[in-house]
Structure formats: C-alpha cells, structure tokens
Amino acid sequence: KKLLLAFALALLVPWTTRAQDCTQTVPYTEGFEGVTGTTFSTAGSLPACWNGFTNGTGTGYVPHVVTGAANYSYQHSGINSLVMTSGSGASYGNTKIVMLPPMSVALNQLQLSFWMCTESSSYGTLIVGYVTSDDTTTFTEIQSYTASSASMHSGNGLQTTAGVEVELNLASVPSNATRLAFKWYHNSTYYTCCIDDVVISYPPTCPKVDSLTVSPTSNSAEVAWVSASNATSWVIVVSDATGVVDSSIVMTNPATVYNLTPNTAYDVTVRAICGDEDWSLPRSTTFRTARSAVA
After folding, report:
1. Which of 182, 193, 185 is nearest to 94 (CA)?
2. Residue 6 has pLDDT above 50, yes or no
3. Is 93 left (phi over 0), alpha (psi -120 to 50) or beta?
4. Rg for the chain (alpha carbons), in Å?
C-alpha cells in the first residue's frame, strides 16, 4: 500500500517538478554552444527551458539556435547563437518572442548582458522584457533597442568585432518577476537579429564605465566616458599591435594620452576604481590617430 500511495503521489506533480527543474541559479550564462544549430530558416532547437514563439506560419522561423557561417548568422563567440527572423509575410510573422528560464531570485536584484547583431542597420526592434507565465500576452517591455543602435552584420559566422554588448540593470522590474524574455519585431520584407553570450548576474559593486569615446589627434587622444559609480579614479590602458604603450591611473574625466604615433590603430581600455580592491570590469574601444600634418 505504501508503494502504491507513493506512486500515486508521484503522478500528481509532473508540472511542478518541471518548473522547479527549470529555475536557474545566479549567475546564469548561455552561449548556445550546447545546442545543435541549423540555418536561419530551418526548424531547430533552443536551450533547455527556453521557449520560442512566432505569430507566423513557417516552422523554420520559430526562434532557434543558428550555427556557423550560414546566411544571416552571427556569433560573438563559438559557432552558435540565437536567431530571430521577422517580416511581413505570413510565413515569417512580424513578432518573435523567446522566454528564458526563471531565475532563483527576483529580476530586480540582477542585471542582464548580451551581444546582439542585426541583419540591417535600419530595420527591426529588439525589446527586452519579462513574462509572468508561458502566456506571451504577459510580456512587459523593460527596454527596446532599434537596429540602428546595434551593429549590422559585416558577414556571417564568428565576428568578434561586430555586434554591440547590451548591459541592462533590472532594478525597475517588479519584485515578483523572475523570467526575462526577448521580442524581435519587424513588419516589412524580413530581417534577422542574432543574440549571443547571455549573462544574468548580480550587479557589481563597481560598475563598468559607459559611453567610452576617443577624440584623437596625430599624436594624442582625449578619452572620455560616463561613470556609473562613485569612482573618483580610473585606469586607462592604451595598446597597439605590439602591446601596451601607455598605462596610467587618472583622476580626471576626460583624460588625454600623449606620445602616440600618427596614423596608427590603438585599443583603449578604461576601468573604474571604487576602492582598494574594488575595480570595475574593463570597457574597451578602438581608434586611429590622424596622419601627420604635411609641412
């Protein structure tokens, strides 16, 4: 009798068990490398506990993992990424929604980062939101990103210098929300958006700087940024193809780096210092110095 009772109870909880199995601990990362990818228009799969939806009729345009250097495929790292294709035709559907697994803590305690790249620099909007169930009508927008704010595909396949990294603090999300979602919308012909290297984590005590810009001359460069923390000093590292050419701690923003070579490509990295052992992660960009003036 005890065995029969235990068996009967087990039959009553399959959906509860499934939901518990899908809840993810933080930090959570997904690079889509553990899923067999297909082409952008061939039906495929998503990672475990991810759900994809389309309002189109074509099964090949349900959001899925795309692989390699096939058409409309972009990866920031590895060989796979998430692809969403929307358009005006009935087969495409103009709206795609991808729901991530629920997190073990409320979203308003966390931050989201990912890389995105679009097929077009003009068409399509990616919306980050949250859902409260598997019902797509519960999708609520947090932040939107137009194609013009992303980086257009410069080709297909691995493109470590293409795309843009999106970082979003989720403090404004209601305290009962634990599940993020992406929505890709476009309503003319068809265009794709690829997403890679998704990370959900606790916000750092010393956030990265934002809006890093460089204004170069032939032998110097003014570096400016927006500090999202109470940092009062920053580390600036400038490198060329041979290695580091300048590394310094500065107390001003903007700051100028001198003794650079004309018409030379450089990388610059800035890290905020919020305490003796509390430095931000780096923020980087590239620039080229101007040519020397002709006498």
Report:
1. 185
2. no
3. left
4. 23
Residue 284 tokens read as 């980087």
pLDDT at 78 over 60: yes
Of the candidates 238, 229, 213, 212, the residue with the CA atom closest to the CA atom of residue 273: 229
- What mean pLDDT comes out for the span 263-274? 96
Q: Which of 231, 200, 189, 11 is nearest to 102 (CA)?
A: 200
Cis preceding-peptide flag for 174 (omega within 30 of 0)? no
- Cβ-contact 146, 132 below 8 angstroms: no
Phi first, then psi: give them for residue 190, nearest 5 degrees. Answer: -155, 145
What percent of the chain is modeled with pLDDT above 70?
Answer: 87
Residue 75 bridge partners (DSSP): 158
User: Do 144 and 126 touch, CB atoms closer than 8 A?
Assistant: yes
